[in-house]
Amino acid sequence: MSETCGTCGLPRELCVCETIAKESQKIEVVKVKKKFGKISTMIRGLNQNEINLKELASKLKSRFACGGTAKEGLIELQGNHLKDVKAELVKLGFSPDTIDVK
Ligand SMILES: [Zn+2]
What we know:
By secondary structure, the protein is α+β, with helices and mostly antiparallel strands. The protein has 3 helices and 5 strands. It has a 5-stranded mixed beta sheet with strand order 3-4-2-1-5, with helices on one face. The mean pLDDT is 91.
């Protein structure tokens, strides 16, 4: 038996909720200065009910070969990836119009 989506009730393979969510997010990418002058890149505005943040974070972490965390609608990546995050999110199915790089 296949798993069904909690939002639309369709089997996971037919569900487009995540696709729709990806197109309707308002995502902000910001650079954050941490303690000791460390820089990290924060992606916020992600809808954690519709986007699998952990999965997204792990894809980005392996793409940028960096550490990072995912929690409560935001993903934080170690290092400055401001220039590359948008292109990578677009590759993963997000619409470029929804991504605002500060
Ligand atoms: Zn669904």
